[in-house]
């Protein structure tokens, strides 16, 4: 293996004691499941003070206010923005609400971070980027997997010359039977799609980040629905999903071509007849390869093919990846440090997903602008 000095990728580290000169006044829009993880993470970030929250459902607002001691709660973000004037809006709503909430926030003078996926489609992502630029506000997407210690291991190996030119990356976010039985994850008009946009996005964003974010230029793929839209008595981890409103795919498979010749293959499912769930990407380069799931580098060394497994990596347990991503955004605003997942990264990932969906609808390869 090469001995070049490693790049600094220590964003995962959480300082034990940190002096903070200024706190960001932060507000959460959407007080459902993931907002709780955000709140848990925020409690570990001294740069953030939560000053308000917003949800269209009064019961969700009440839980949020009572549980976290937030005084100001609103059913409309316009009221929140006008009365509280936060520095940052943290959007934790279903996908179809990300774009209007972010645009309203940046137009009111707030910086905005939105949960993944960035939006429903690339046009919405572009609208969000343009609005943030026009109002000179920062915009980030809540992609936490690029902060994973295994991604940081890969980034250091790549910078050290262990990988060479990357030719192929295979992304898999496969559940054997895991259709969410809460929220609106089965409703295409509110989510933009099924497993590809909901969980495939995690593996795609982290793999795309690791391979250097090349520009996607063409996509080919297909999607299938064969389980989610029917009642089922099969035992599974989240039984009783709303099959009557299920309009998304069970399985999506796609291939994307990048401008540097690299190919990304994507497999993502809520339901698939496979041995076990898979959460992984595999990278093949001219000098070495990499497997996310096992944190293993494949290379040749001194006449031998070597599988080099990480001897130690920090354990990304609990909400630590959320701490890393929210802290990166807070520091970006306060210190001007680079955002690891700016709006442009969200747009590129959305173009990959959208390309596969468009190809599935067209029944042929489609170009990505
Ligand atoms: N990064 C991750 O690992 C991760 C994990 C889970 C979910 N998510 C993302 O977070 C988002 C929310 O997911 P969730 O599981 O928390 O869903 P959820 O359904 O539990 O919560 C969404 C909340 O948004 C509220 N809401 C809907 N429309 C609103 C509006 N116009 N104004 C204010 N509030 C509104 C709903 O009432 C609900 O309380 C989704 O985009 C999802 O993809 C990310």
What does this protein look like?
- With 369 residues, the protein is of the alpha/beta class.
- It has 2 domains: 21-144, 3-Layer(aba) Sandwich (Rossmann fold); 146-316 and 343-367, Dihydrodipicolinate Reductase, domain 2.
- Helix content is 32%, strand content 24%.
- The protein has 10 helices and 15 strands.
- Strands 14-13-12-11-7-10-9-8-15 form a 9-stranded mixed beta sheet.
- The longest helix has 20 residues, at 343-362.
- The two termini are 38 Å apart.
- Mean pLDDT is 95; it is low at 1-6.
- Nicotinamide-adenine-dinucleotide is lined by residues 29-35, 54-57, 60, 92-95, 97, 115-116, 142, 144, 182-183, 198.
Distance from N terminus to C terminus (CA atoms, Å) equals 38 Å
The strand line-up of the biggest sheet is: 14-13-12-11-7-10-9-8-15
The CATH topology of the largest domain comes to Dihydrodipicolinate Reductase, domain 2
Provide the CATH architecture of the largest domain: 2-Layer Sandwich
Overall residue-averaged pLDDT value: 95
| Low-confidence spans | 1-6
Percent helix range: 25-40%
Give me the count of strands. Answer: 15
User: What count of structural domains?
Assistant: 2
The H/E string reads EHEHEHEHEHEHEHHEEEEEEEHHE
CATH homologous superfamily classification of the largest domain: Dihydrodipicolinate Reductase, domain 2
Largest sheet features: 9 strands, mixed
Give the amount of beta strand, in percent. 15-25%
Instruction: Specify the structural class.
Output: alpha/beta
Shape summary: globular
| CATH C-level class of the largest domain | Alpha Beta
Counting DSSP H or I runs of 4 or more residues, the number of helices is 10
The Cα radius of gyration reads: 21 Å
């Amino acid at each position: 293996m090469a001995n070049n000095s490693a790049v600094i990728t220590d964003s995962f580290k959480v300082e034990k004691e940190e002096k903070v000169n200024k706190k960001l006044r932060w507000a959460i829009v959407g007080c459902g499941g993931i907002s709780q993880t955000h709140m848990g993470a925020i409690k570990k970030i001294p740069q953030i003070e939560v000053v308000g929250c917003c949800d269209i459902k009064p019961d969700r607002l009440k839980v949020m206010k009572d549980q976290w001691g937030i005084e100001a709660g609103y059913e409309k973000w316009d009221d929140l923005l006008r009365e509280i004037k936060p520095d940052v809006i943290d959007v934790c709503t279903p996908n179809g609400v990300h774009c209007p909430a972010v645009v309203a926030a940046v137009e009111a003078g707030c910086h905005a971070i939105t949960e993944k996926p960035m939006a429903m489609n690339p046009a919405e992502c572009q609208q969000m980027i343009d609005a943030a630029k026009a109002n000179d506000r920062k915009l980030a997407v809540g992609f936490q997997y690029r902060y994973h210690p295994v991604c940081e291991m890969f980034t250091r190996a790549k910078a050290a010359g262990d990988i060479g030119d990357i030719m192929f990356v295979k992304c898999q976010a496969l559940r054997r039977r895991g259709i969410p039985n809460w929220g609106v994850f089965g409703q295409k008009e509110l989510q933009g799609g099924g497993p590809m946009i909901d969980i495939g996005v995690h593996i795609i964003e982290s793999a795309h980040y690791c391979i250097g974010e090349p520009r996607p230029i063409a996509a080919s793929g297909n999607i299938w629905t064969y389980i989610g839209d029917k009642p089922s008595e099969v035992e599974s981890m989240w039984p009783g999903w709303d099959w009557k409103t299920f309009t998304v795919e069970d399985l999506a498979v796609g291939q994307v071509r990048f401008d540097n010749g690299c190919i990304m293959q994507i497999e993502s499912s809520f339901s698939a007849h496979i041995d076990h769930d898979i959460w992984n990407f595999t990278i093949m380069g001219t000098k070495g390869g990499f497997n996310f799931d096992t944190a293993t580098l494949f290379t040749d060394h001194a006449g031998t093919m070597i599988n080099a497994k990480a001897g130690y990596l920090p354990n990304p347990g609990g909400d630590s990846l959320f701490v890393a991503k929210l802290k990166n955004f807070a520091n970006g605003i306060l210190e001007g440090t680079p955002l690891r997942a700016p709006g442009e990264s969200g747009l590129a990932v959305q173009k990959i997903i959208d390309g596969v969906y468009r190809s599935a609808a067209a029944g042929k390869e489609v170009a990505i602008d």
